[in-house]
Design a protein that fits this description.
The strands form 2 sheets. This protein has a 6-stranded parallel β-sheet, with helices on both faces. By secondary structure, the protein is α/β, with parallel strands linked by helices. The protein folds into 2 domains: about 150 residues, Rossmann fold (3-Layer(aba) Sandwich), CATH 3.40.50.1220; about 80 residues, SIR2/SIRT2 'Small Domain', CATH 3.30.1600.10. The protein contains 12 helices and 9 strands.
Length: about 260
C-alpha cells in the first residue's frame, strides 16, 4: 500500500480484504448519486404537495388509487432512466473479490443488479414488480397500463394492482428479513453505504452484526448513529470513496504477502 493513501481507506480495505463473510447494507444515498431522488425528499412540481403517506400507504391507495398509481409510474420511469454509478460498480466488484458477499438493500430499484451484483436481498421490495392488493396475485404490467391514470384490475380477482414495494405501516417480507438477519449474525464485516440508519428494522442490522463480533465500515456523507459504532467511518459520497477502497482491496489480495487485518 502506498504511504500517500488515506489511512482510513487503507484500514477499510484491509478489513474487507481479510473478511470471510461480508454483508453490505445500502440505502437511498447510493441511488441518489444516480439521480434517483430519495423518497423522503420533496419532489419538484406536482408531487411536492403530497405527504409520503398519501403516496405510499394502504390508506392513501384506498383514498385515491389513481394518484398513487401515477406517482409510482413516475418513480418507475425515473429509475429506468437512471444508470448505476461508480458506487454501484464498486460494490459489484467487491462481491467478485470476496469469499462471501451478501448485499442487503433498502432500495426498490434495480441499479445494483444492473451494475453486476448478484446476491441481493431487497428488504423493501421492487418497484418493477406488481401484484394484486387483494389476492396478491403477481401481475405482468403492460405498456398501456403504465400510461393509464388508474391502476389496472387483477386478472384473478378483479382487485387493484399495486407495486410490490413495502408501504408505510406494512411489514417487511418475513423471508427476506429473516435471511438478512441471519447473514448479519454470521458475517465478520458489515459494510454500510448510503443509509443513516433511521428506518427500522433495517437499522437493527449493524447492531446485530456488531453484537455478533463483526467489524463495521460506514460510508456516508454525514455521520450517524451507525458511524458511531463503526470501526472505520468514511465520510463522503460512495461513488467517490468505494472505488478507492475496492482498488486497495485488489492491491492487497494481489500482493505476495498480505498484511494482517488491523487491530
Amino acid at each position: 500500500m502506498t504511504g500517500s493513501a488515506d489511512p482510513r481507506i487503507e484500514k477499510a480495505a484491509q478489513l474487507l480484504a481479510h473478511a470471510q463473510r461480508i454483508v453490505c447494507l445500502t440505502g437511498a444515498g447510493v441511488s441518489a448519486e444516480s439521480g434517483v431522488a430519495t423518497f423522503r425528499n420533496a419532489e419538484t412540481g406536482l408531487w411536492s404537495q403530497f405527504a409520503p403517506q398519501q403516496l405510499a400507504s394502504q390508506e392513501g391507495f384506498s383514498a385515491d388509487p389513481g394518484l398513487v398509481w401515477r406517482w409510482y409510474m413516475h418513480r418507475l420511469d425515473m429509475v429506468e432512466r437512471a444508470w448505476p454509478n461508480a458506487g454501484h460498480d464498486a460494490l459489484a466488484a467487491l462481491e467478485r473479490l470476496a469469499a462471501s458477499f451478501t448485499l442487503v438493500t433498502q432500495n426498490v430499484d434495480d441499479l445494483h443488479e444492473r451494475a453486476g451484483s448478484r446476491r441481493i436481498l431487497h428488504l423493501h421490495g421492487r418497484i418493477s414488480r406488481f401484484h394484486c392488493n387483494r389476492c396478491h396475485f403477481e401481475h405482468d404490467l403492460l405498456p398501456s397500463e403504465r400510461r393509464a391514470s388508474e391502476p389496472p384490475a387483477c386478472h384473478n380477482c378483479g382487485g387493484l394492482i399495486r407495486p410490490s414495494v413495502v408501504w408505510f405501516g406494512e411489514n417487511l417480507p418475513r423471508r427476506v428479513l429473516d435471511h438478512a438477519w441471519r447473514e448479519a449474525e454470521r458475517c465478520d464485516l458489515l459494510l454500510v453505504v448510503g443509509t443513516s440508519g433511521v428506518v427500522y428494522p433495517a437499522a437493527h442490522l449493524p447492531l446485530v452484526a456488531k453484537q455478533s463480533g463483526a467489524r463495521i465500515v460506514d460510508v456516508n456523507p454525514e455521520p450517524s448513529e451507525i458511524s458511531a459504532l463503526a470501526d472505520v467511518f468514511l465520510q463522503g459520497p460512495s461513488g467517490e470513496l468505494l472505488p478507492q477502497v475496492t482498488q486497495h482491496v485488489r492491491i492487497l489480495q494481489g500482493g505476495a504477502q498480505k498484511q494482517p487485518p488491523p487491530e
